[in-house]
Amino acid sequence: MKKATTVGELVEQLIDVGRMAVERGLVLASGGNLSARLPGTAEFVVTASGTWLDRLEPADFSTMNLDGEVVGGHPSPSSEWKLHQRTYRVRDDVNSVIHIHPQHAVLVDALGHPVRLFTLDHAVYVKSVGRTDYYPNGSDELADTAAEEARVHNCVIMGNHGCSALGEDVGMAFRRAMNLEEAAIATYRALCLGDTTTAFPEAAYRSLHHA
């Protein structure tokens, strides 16, 4: 995806991501929500309440500020708007939050196993995975604990719920979401084979991230 410079371009990118997320089985119907920070402002657009991610239109987005006020667009933002708002408040470098419900990432986490990184793409794009316990949908507890994890991680699994993937733009956030689920699928397959330790080589990981 090209770097978006206008609100319209951001919305079109989020519409594309919503369609692709449903096509790839990363979310169903009106599950999940998407947002992007507006260039050069303290505002962000977020999908409206009840919208189906593969049927999004420009009118299906609310514009909010970082104080949690609706300042334009659809009057009823997603019930998960706090998740996006709190993340933007702690990460100045994040300009998009993709919140979806990838089945394998949620399942592996619910079974008590960490999602392991196996490939170069996993190591580069996911890098590390944070997690929270289960908290009610739209709650302050969910938004605040996910934001704390987002201080360190670009991918956060929310227990028995879904995940958030963060990026400097919409394309990077969605790339991370896809790689997280791919890593979770690989982890699930490894567990089915009885393997609990194989992962991307530690020395190579440290070299990639200059640890």
Automatic annotation (TrEMBL):
One of its GO terms (cellular component) is cytosol. It holds the Pfam family Aldolase_II. The keyword Metal-binding applies. InterPro entries: Aldolase_class_II_sugar_metab, Aldolase_II/adducin_N, Aldolase_II/adducin_N_sf. GO terms for biological process: pentose catabolic process. The keyword Magnesium does not apply. Keywords: Lyase, Metal-binding. GO terms for molecular function: aldehyde-lyase activity; metal ion binding. Residues 12-188 form the Class II aldolase/adducin N-terminal domain. This is Fuculose phosphate aldolase. It comes from Prauserella flavalba.
